Amino acid sequence: METGNTPAEFPLLDATRAFLAKPKKMLIGGEWSEAATGRVLDVLNPANATLLARVPEADATDVQQAVAAARRAFDQGPWRSMKTTDRERLLLKLADLVEANARELAEIESLDNGKSVLVAQGLDVAMAAQCFRYMAGWATKIEGSVIDAGIPYMPDSEVFSYTRKEPVGVVGAIIPWNFPLLMAAWKIAPALATGCTVVLKPAEDTPLSALRLGELIQEAGYPAGVVNIVTGYGHTAGAALASHPQIDKIAFTGSTQTGKLIGHAALDNMTRMSLELGGKSPVIVLPDVDVDRAAAGVANAIFFNQGQVCTAGSRVYIHDKVFDQVIEGVAKIAQSMKLGPGMDPATQIGPLVSAKQRERVCGYIESGFAEGARGVAGGKRLECPGYFVEPTVLVDTNHTMKVVREEIFGPVLVAMPFSDIDTAVQLANDTPYGLGASIWSNDLSAIHKLIPRIHAGTVWVNCHSLLDNALPFGGMKQSGFGRELGRAVIDQYTESKSVMMNYA
Ligand code: NAI
Ligand code: MG
Fold it and tell me: Which of 82, 106, 150, 331 has the fewest CB atoms lying closer than 10 Å?
């Protein structure tokens, strides 16, 4: 297993090198600025724990300035009166700029987060560009309706009534570190399509791609203050944003614990909110499967992006007729995966995002062993400066164990057999979360009967964690509320206004 390579062993674009080398500033009101305190925070490369860059460490003062800039741009600026066709054009331009700089953005993302540069380019960056393009289409398709009002207590009335959808206002977006650029796009794109303005706070672990996106937003020609980007910690900058009375909507993706804090803060100001939170998504393997295909699917569902995926298929329930064979297949895949830096195109498992995340994940693995789970693959961190944890498969697990109940957010799978479908459903739903689930089978009747019984915002069949900009995405139960993407997200970034005109 090769690990700990320095990025220098893998050639970077000159553009990436130049971006990394220059001093990083935040985007506030169309200007690049340092934190008011002058403080900075270190951004590390998780593949080797070296310093990648420093970014401003914003606090409440900087957040206040960013919110004021977004407020001005919303209330007074040219943005408000801009034609929907011009908003569409600007979003399309941003999509093109993201694509034109795809390799550079992917290298920045890989170095900052640890993920495979190939995945970063093929998925994160490509889907971010496509998100801007998809939402550009919505800018010209936001509709209210004409409603024939009866007014029973005024029989002689003649009224013309309609609804209009108006931008919700200033959006505070707080995003996590697992898909940094893509999550920025998921928040910024619908905000811009609907005519909102934004203050974005990227995660402290992965602020770089958002700052590069800020440069592209400037290059595209957005009016000053329409998009503001502040880099800083969650408990300071993030909390200041979530509790700010001049924010009209908070859009958050991250842990359920932080989501609750943000939700409480938002509710105090009656700030609208959408919360995309954690998950512990079940994977259900029915007895009719092709064993090799199911094993590959199960492995991909958990190990993709080092398991740092909110919909990661982290619990698998396999019919006992095929349990041993499928688990053997998954364990073989896990043992064969190549660990290495994301910049190495051969890497299949990169480092976790931070030392803190590695400690969390290793703590869970140890608790699993302590509670009686047995490892059939992985189970250890690598002894090197990078934050690598082996892809791990645990069997002999049950629903009293922490590893089964809690979100681990790493490459750790817990597996359990079942003998009848009612038990599988009961176990799959025995979780506080409800984000995703997948079913592996070709038995159409069984699949269709199962789908409505699963408490999850998305159910995949013979695939897992697939996304498209046209499909709503979000969670049930403690996985949050609100839906992103698709037509559904437009409602999250608009308010409905009813109008009645008396013409009697
Ligand atoms: P987190 O949910 O605390 O961080 C996500 C974002 O929220 C970051 O931008 C952070 O700066 C911000 N934040 C943190 N505290 C805040 C506060 N009090 N007010 C406002 N903003 C705040 O997640 P963290 O600590 O990075 O990871 C811990 C665990 O959370 C992970 O192990 C994983 O289980 C889960 N997680 C889930 C994600 C998901 O997409 N479902 C994404 C990231 C983490
Ligand atoms: Mg980093």
Answer: 150
Q: Which residues line ligand 1 (CB under 6 A)?
A: 174-178, 201, 203-204, 233-235, 238-239, 242, 253-255, 258, 261-262, 277-278, 310, 357, 360, 407, 409
Q: Is residue 90 part of a domain?
A: yes
Provide the domain count of the chain.
2
| Domain co-membership, 309 together with 259 | no
Atom 13 in ligand 1: which residue has the minimum CA distance?
A: 234
Q: State whether 137 and 119 are in the same domain.
A: yes
Ligand minimally distant from the alpha carbon of residue 20: 2
Domain residues for 414? 282-468
Q: What is the pLDDT along the chain (504 residues), one digit of tens a residue?
A: 344 444 457 999 999 999 999 999 999 999 999 999 999 999 999 999 999 999 999 999 999 999 999 999 999 989 988 999 999 999 999 999 999 999 999 999 999 999 999 999 999 999 999 999 999 999 999 999 999 998 999 989 999 999 999 999 999 999 999 999 999 999 999 999 999 999 999 999 999 999 999 999 999 999 999 999 999 999 999 999 999 999 999 999 999 999 999 999 999 999 999 999 999 999 999 999 999 999 999 999 999 999 999 999 999 999 999 999 999 999 999 999 999 999 999 999 999 999 999 999 999 999 999 999 999 999 999 999 999 999 999 999 999 999 999 999 999 999 999 999 999 999 999 999 999 999 999 999 999 999 999 999 999 999 999 999 999 999 999 999 999 999 999 999 999 999 999 998
CATH code assigned at 349: 3.40.309.10
Look up the CATH number of the domain holding residue 75: 3.40.605.10
Burial of 149 (0-12, 13-18, 19+ CB in 10 A): middle
Which atom from ligand 1 is nearest to the alpha carbon of 310?
A: 41
Cβ–Cβ under 8 Å, residues 283 and 327: no
267 and 316 together in one domain: no
Spatial contact of 192 and 90, defined as CB atoms under 8 Å apart: yes
Q: Within this chain, do residues 389 and 404 fall inside the same structural domain, yes or no? A: yes
Task: Tell me how many helices (H) and strands (E) the chain has.
Answer: 18, 22
From the CA of 231, the nearest ligand is 1
Nearest CA to ligand 1 atom 31: 409
Note the pTM of the prediction, 2 decimals. Answer: 0.97
Which residue's CA lies nearest to atom 8 of ligand 1? 203
- CA dist 292 and 325 (Å) reads 9
> Residue 3: inside a domain, yes or no?
no
Phi, psi angle pair for 48, to nearest 5°: -145, 10
